[in-house]
Amino acid sequence: VxxxxxxxxxxxxxxxxxLSCAASGRTFSRDSVAxxxxxxxxxxxxxxxxxRPSGGGRTYYADSVKGRFTISRDNARNTVYLQMNSLRTEDxxxxxxxxxxxxxxxxxxxxxxxxxxxxxxxxTVSS
Length: 127
Hints:
Number of strands: 11
Low-confidence stretches: none
Mean pLDDT: 96
Helix content: under 10%
Shape: globular
Radius of gyration: 13 Å
Strand content: over 45%
Distance between the termini: 37 Å
């Protein structure tokens, strides 16, 4: 199982980026797929998640990104996206995707709930 996160780069504050998380060896359509990020010198933190369809399929976001970031999935491409709008300098971080089919609602924001992780993609937001 491999998760490949991509789409990071350098963007000015107020701009947008779309990150992708593509899976190989695993069917994403049954998974909860989350995004986490880690800024320099900081702990990794939860960004948002799209819950597995059998759990309701809803999206949930950290307060810091709510209204600016959107997670969606394309089952035909076996890919989950993180659309990031109105980016701020504090959004600068390495972004990771993670997936698992067994995550329950109360653990969606917990890193330890996810067995499969991508390698991370760097997002840098300049002022």
